[in-house]
Amino acid sequence: MATETLIWLLPLFPLVSFALIVLFTNHNKALSHTIAVGSAALSFLGSMVVFWRALRVEHFADYPFTSVINWIPVGGDTWLQIGVRIDPLSTVTLFFVAWTVLTIFLYSVGYQNYGQPQGDHDRKGLPPHGATITDEHGHTHVVLSVEPMYARFFAFISLFAFGMYTLVVSDNLLTLFVGWEIMGLCSYLLIGFWFAKPSARAAAIKAFITTRVGDVFMLLGLAYVYKMAGSLRYEVIFAPETLHMMAEHASGFLGLSAAGLIGLLFFIGAVGKSAQWPLHVWLPDAMEGPTPVSAMIHAATMVSAGVYMTIRIFPILEASKEAGDFTMLLISFIGAFTALFAATIAVAQNDIKRVLAYSTISQLGYMMAAIGIGAYVAAVFHLVTHAFFKALLFLGSGSVIHGMEHGVLHTGNHHVDPQDMFNMGGLKDKMPITFWTFLIGGFALSGFPLVTAGFWSKDEILGDAFTHGHWWVFSVLALAAFLTAFYTMRQITLTFLGKPRTKEAEHAQETPWTMTVPLMALAFFALTFGWTGIPEHFLVLGGLVPNWFHPWVIGTLGEHAEAAVEGSVVPLLTSLVVALGGLYVGWLVYRNVPAGAEDPLKKPLGGLHSVLQNKYYFDELYDKIFIKPSVWVSEVFTSAWMDRGLIDGILHTLARFSVFLGGLFRYVIDEPIINGFGDWVANTTRKLGDRLRVIQTGRVQQYMVAALIFAAVVLVYFVTAMP
Amino acid sequence: MDFIANHLLTLILFLPALGALVMFFLPSEPKGLHRWVAFITSLLTLILSLVLWMRFDRGAAGFQFQEQYAWYDAIRASFHVGVDGLGLTMVLLTSLLSALAILASFSIQEKVKAYMMLFLFLETGLLGVFMALDMLIFFVFYEVGLVPMFFLIQQWGSPKGERELWGGKKVPSRVYASFKFMVYTMGASLGLLLAIQLMGVSIGSYDIPKLLKLWPILQRANNIPLGLPFTTVKTIAFWAMTIAFALKVPVWPFHTWLPDAHSEAPTPGSMILAGVLLKMGAYGFLRFVLPLYPVQAKQYAGWLAFLAVMAIVFGAFGAYGQDDFKRLVAYSSINHMGFVVLGIAAAAKAIGTLDATIALNGAVLQMFNHGLSAAGMFFLVGVLYERAHTRDLNEYGGLFPLIPVYGGILVFTSMASLGLPGLNGFVSEFLVVRGSWPIFTVYTAIAMLGLLFTGSYILKGIKKVLHGPLNEKWAGHLTEINARELLVITPLMVLMLQLGVWPAWLLDVINRAMSMLFGA
Question: How far apart are CA A593 and CA A590, in angstroms?
């Protein structure tokens, strides 16, 4: 098959799967997940074929796979074109998307308890509560029950995969935006998958609206780019002439050039999607969704899309520097700040998934900071490694929660929160595969030296920041890296090491193969992917393994984009110290937490700890300054005051005036004068008639007399009047 | 066959009225007879409209399928009809929505004969507006449509609810709404009629093609009272027409009749009101205001854009502030139609540029798209109302497991209304934003606030109806959407998806029409 045709097909497989499940197979669990996983596998195979074919092309950056069609006519004979494009940047993105999507689809089969009995009183819209079964010995057990909306889940994640593949294979910002928004919808639908829970319902809306704040800015960015370039295709937008024109053209806003404003508008879109401060609030709440969703949408793919898009528009960002580096500075500031900010919150969270959520926000901040300082290749590298190890960590946490739920069902004590790390401990022996893979993921996140992928990518960001003289970015990121290692080790220690702190943890159980195989596959990449990008100048190892990643990706946006990084031992030493130091301190503080004890950091940190635990009170703040006023403006100002009060008031006043005027005519003119005159005429006539009635006696003699008198009078008149 | 081909427009126009006349001579029972006669009539009209669409030569400039008959020679008004790409698009929308609305009316039980007759007369009135090529004929159809709608709201509107006037005086809501709708619209039409008279008398003809050619370049006229300068007269006439059409769209602050009329009307009436009637206002801008008053339109485009943005923003806020599901959807129309007017205003400002053409493409496509999604939303609200007999959002809750098919359809249609990329609303909103951004940058940016709250009110609807803990009183009392109702909503959904993915077939017609009408 022609490569271009194949690229068009990549998003379509999951779309067909979505349609099939929704329309036909929604009552059949096995068929539904077969279709979904099958479609993901087809897209995966297609992606790998595209990937390998791309590797075989020489100077692939100059000869990417592209295919274009006319989409809509816009004025005269010009058309807005859309198409697909696979270039080096999209190949690596496609690679990790294909892997994570496939593994997570497979994992979902186990996570949603396929093959388990129906729940005793499970309802659609609520998580399964467990089923009672009787074994051959007559003992009853409570076991995990299958998700009541099993088929729907696979339909939604298929639609999601369609969105993500669309975004990756797009050759233009418009279809990128289409994929972007479809993912947003799926994120909403999947966070609110258990929609009967008010918390899940609220989280879904929060996610959709918060990201939409960014999206409307991005829409303006789209309009602006389209206006400036006359197209939305990367080829046209990123052509040197167009970039030059955008850099020269003043936008009239904050002294930015058109390129600067466009970059800013798109970046705000990415801030929403990638949950950067100040639009980060939705991502932790998004953990209300099923864990595979958290892994796929809220760690590996959708939230990465914000970073991917920002990297895509990097040429525009770079062009914006000609007229001042406001946009780039802002990106590096938001990125670095978010990286540290989210890491501090992660330190004080007890929910195993929330820790990972804040860690995701923090790591995405790293990537943004890297883009802001111009190190976009390092950002791409971290994007890919992060996708692998964070998906792994989320799936691992899902596996842990699953094991804990098993324990909860066993003891029947439903007050134990299976996601609270302080209820865990000692799971290492109960769930060995989960433990070892989680350990790999955690070490990769912490940047454990040499053997994990996270080390290489994080080191590259730190190195770039250091050698290009971005001191404050470097320091902030280094501090964040220390905290990352610390909270990761805190998580691993609390969850897996030591002794079980509850009965439920004692009865936890390893999860089925559908869940552990994906863990192992992702663990493989969390270890090895970093070796594709070992810098040439690295001590000893550099040059032993060729640095494939860097030259491969850098071609996408032109060779000139980034100078090679000079080697320095300072960032390397820093990396080592913060990673190993953080891990060690984390282990030291949390290794001996007994059952029922509070967080050992609570005392030393004092009030700060509760500030961190409450996420700096951003939710409360936003509620006060955005949500409550919006409700007031809608319900009171607009509906009650303006529409019903003022506008309808004016209308009613007009109506009242008309009624008054009508009354005036009626009571002052019509009734007294016109009617009055008519009535007077009638009344007078009638009265006159009444008076005259007396002569109407009906006696002929009297009439005769009257006639004679009249005749006499007339006679007299004529006689006397005649001359 | 030749007869059909030569009289295609008049056939489409009068077929519904003819059907209504036939029904007049039929006995009023059984009800089914009238339902089917009405439905088949509207279906035939739709089929003829599709024939019209097929036979339309999209490359040719000017009006096609013209027919002209003597009507009122004394004042030189004739019965003249014809369509271009703009009219054609609206005719197609009208005949499609009318057929679906009549199918949706099958659940009406009272006075079916009168209801169906009125509905068919309404269809003729609406079609006439989009076909008329004579200003007086246009005005007649413009007003004729009001009468059946007045009775539909007043007689078949929702029986509950009262509205307080002044001094503690109360009237039934549907009486209030129908009266407000009728009087308000007619009041604004007075200015329109005077403007039409002014033009007709000055040019000596009411023929639209002739007026389009002569009126914009006319420099002086006789019989101007008070010795006013002619430009002032033109400006007054411009505002008279603008206000008449702005009220119909409706543009803020002339919009308050809409939530009342739409929420009190019977479901199919709301479908037509939102789907077609509002388009008459936007059509008026495109057909008359912009081409007849290019100078004034350009001069006052900023004001129009301001009002459009107010409609977008406060329409969205208004929708978010409602607890009545139908009122929420009604307010959403104000929000969505605001984008149509924003596009028109931008085009008026920079007529002849590529930006203007794009904005106009977006505006016309948005008219069509809003017709689909608003009709769909009103229909879905009606489906729920027929079962639950309440429109109060706080009375629902967690209905998704009870009515999953309905729920899926509601989410889909809501997303189309929200403007989700991949569905129809996005394409038109994007084109409007693209077109108006370079022309009215600040207004376009403020409009984004409305777009954000579009998300809020759409999700509020879904949240209150489908999601959350189940309100137990509905368990076992709500039935799933039935086959007839599916038949109504499916064509709308197919079109919403189709136009979101591949809108070229429609946009090509619109784009050519706009380029020919307003191109450089």
Answer: 6
Residues B317-338 pLDDT 10s: 999 999 999 999 999 999 999 9
Chain B: closest CA distance from residue A175 (Å): 9
Structure confidence at residue B520 (pLDDT): 55
CB A180 within 8 A of CB A163: yes
Contact with chain B for residue A617, Cβ under 8 A: no
The answer to whether residue B306 sits within a structural domain is yes
Question: A442-455 b/e with 16+ CB inside 10 Å = b?
Answer: bbbbbbbeeebbbb
Q: Do B508 and A181 touch (CB under 8 A)?
A: no
A561 confidence band (pLDDT: 50, 70, 90): very low
Amino acid A440: pLDDT: 92
Helices and strands in chain A: count of H runs, count of E runs = 31, 4
β-bridge partners, B72: B77
If one counts the domains in chain B, the total is: 1
Is B516 inside any structural domain? Answer: yes
Question: What single DSSP character describes residue A424?
Answer: -
What percentage of chain A has pLDDT greater than the value 90? 40
> DSSP 3-state assignment of B470?
coil
Q: Which two tokens stand for residue B345?
A: 């205003």
pLDDT in tens, B71-91: 888 888 899 999 999 999 999
Give domain status of residue B471, yes or no. yes
Work out the angle between the directed axes of helices A198-229 and A173-191 (0-180°, nearest 10): 180
User: Looking at beta carbons, which residues of chain A come within 8 Å of B399?
Assistant: none
Three-class SS state of B181: helix
* Rounded Cα distance, A287 and B49, in Å: 51
Which chain B residues are Cβ-neighbours of A272 within 8 angstroms? none
The answer to whether A45 contacts chain B (CB < 8 Å) is no
Determine the 3-state secondary structure of A250 from DSSP.
Answer: strand
Which of B401, B445, B511 comes nearest A74 by C-beta?
A: B511
Distance (Å) of CA A621 to CA A277, A438, A610, A617, A635: 14, 35, 16, 6, 21
Token digits of residue B338: 């605001």
Is B459 close to A205, i.e. CB distance below 8 A? yes
Is there a contact between A220 and B453 if contact means CB atoms under 8 Å apart?
no
Q: How confident is the model at residue A683 (pLDDT cuts 50, 70, 90)?
A: very high
For residue B396, the enclosing domain spans: 300-520
Summarised one tens digit per residue, pLDDT across range A137-161 is: 878 888 888 888 889 999 999 999 9
Between chains, do B459 and A633 touch, taking CB under 8 Å as contact?
A: no
Do the Cβ atoms of B401 and A72 come within 8 Å?
no
Nearest CB partner across the interface for B165, out of A22, A216, A652: A652
Determine the average pLDDT of the residues in A661-667. 89
User: Angle CA(A216)–CA(A218)–CA(A222) in degrees, nearest 5?
Assistant: 115
Q: pLDDT tens-digit profile of B454-485?
A: 999 999 999 999 998 888 888 888 888 999 99
Task: Tell whether A499 lies on the interface with B, counting CB pairs under 8 A.
Answer: no
Best of B355, B436, B511, B518 to disrupt the A interface (most A CBs within 10 Å) is: B511
Q: Which residues contact B434 (CB under 8 A, 6 or more apart)?
A: A222, A223, A226, A227, B355, B358, B359, B362
Strand duo B77-83 + A131-134: pairing: unpaired
A226: contact with B, CB 8 A cutoff = yes
Instruction: Return the residue of A nearest to B311 by Cα.
Output: A638
Q: Is there a domain that residue B430 lies in?
A: yes
The residue type found at A210 is: T
Best CA proximity match to B254, nearest among A643, A654, A656, A655: A643
Residue A589 touches partner B, C-beta closer than 8 Å: no
> In Å, how far is A110's CA from the nearest CA of chain B?
24
How far, in Å, CA of A5 to CA of B446, rounded?
41
Q: What is the pTM of this model?
A: 0.92
Which positions 123-142 of A are in contact with B (Cβ < 8 Å)?
123-125
